[in-house]
Specification:
Blueprint: H1 2-11, E1 13-15, E2 19-21, H2 32-46, E3 53-57, H3 62-72, E4 75-82, E5 91-98, E6 103-110, E7 119-127, H4 131-142, E8 146-156, H5 161-167, E9 172-182, E10 185-188
Parallel strand pairs: 3-4, 3-7, 7-8, 8-9
Antiparallel strand pairs: 1-2, 4-6, 5-6, 9-10
Helix pairs in contact: 2-3
Bound molecules: guanosine-5',3'-tetraphosphate and sodium ion (NA) (2 copies).
Binding site for xanthine: 20, 27, 156
Catalytic activity: XMP + diphosphate = xanthine + 5-phospho-alpha-D-ribose 1-diphosphate
Pathway: Purine metabolism; XMP biosynthesis via salvage pathway; XMP from xanthine: step 1/1
Length: 194
């Protein structure tokens, strides 16, 4: 997605440890018109897939999930994160280990908002090692719902997230794919339409 790649080049900052800081428009401050364009692009890619619900993870997944949901005319459920492990029987729960933060979080979605009748689109802001996406997939499976695919705003293609998700048989649509972060420069893998 060209407009997103331009935004990343203009306002993103490459941190030395292979991390792209995009607080200017995605992870802290949010650019609403860009977010609307992102939602339209996700909707276009999944328009014919009979999506009934979008699932994301708080907090940075919510904005792109919301704009995609508006376009597709479905509701959004964001999984909640918490550190303590109090199992309750009214929620689906999965463990997500973050390599970046070196901690495990529990993510959960109420059984009330995800059921076996749902055909789900999972959306998240970043794809790195894929742990968050795999956790969301697990919640969908626990609910007995089916998954149409995963929409990612920014994929770090030099990490293993995509290959793990594809190995699980899931369609991955990333709007920007980063081949390399080096010397303060972002190199994109390919230029996709839109
Ligand atoms: P994974 O889920 O793909 O395995 O990734 P990882 O554990 O490494 O990511 C942990 C958090 O760091 C996630 O945010 C993820 O979106 C974010 N992240 C990973 N790599 C980058 C990067 O290069 N740049 C930025 N900006 N974020 C990155 P989170 O903790 O869920 O935070 P939030 O949703 O509250 O923003
Ligand atoms: Na994030
Ligand atoms: Na995230």
């Amino acid at each position: 997605m060209k407009v997103l790649e331009e935004k990343i080049r203009e306002e993103g900052r490459v941190l030395s440890e292979g991390v792209l800081k995009v607080d200017a428009f995605l992870n802290h401050q949010i650019d609403p018109s860009l977010m609307v364009q992102i939602g339209k692009e996700f909707a276009n890619r999944f328009r014919d897939n009979h999506i009934t619900k979008i699932i994301t993870l708080e907090s940075s997944g919510i904005a792109p999930a919301l704009t995609a949901a508006l376009e597709l005319g479905v509701k959004v459920v964001f999984a909640r994160k918490r550190k303590s492990l109090t199992l309750t029987d009214h929620v689906h729960v999965a463990q997500v280990y973050s390599f970046t933060k070196q901690e495990t979080n529990e993510i959960s979605i109420s059984k009330e908002y995800l059921s076996e009748e749902d055909h789900v689109l999972i959306i998240d802001d970043f794809l790195a090692n894929g742990q968050a996406a795999l956790g969301l997939l697990e919640l969908v499976q626990q609910a007995g719902a089916s998954v149409a695919g995963i929409g990612i705003v920014i994929e770090k293609s030099f990490q293993e997230g995509r290959s793990k998700l594809e190995a699980a048989g899931v369609r991955v649509e990333s709007l920007a794919r980063i081949a390399e972060l080096a010397d303060g420069e972002v190199t994109f893998l390919e230029h996709t339409a839109g």
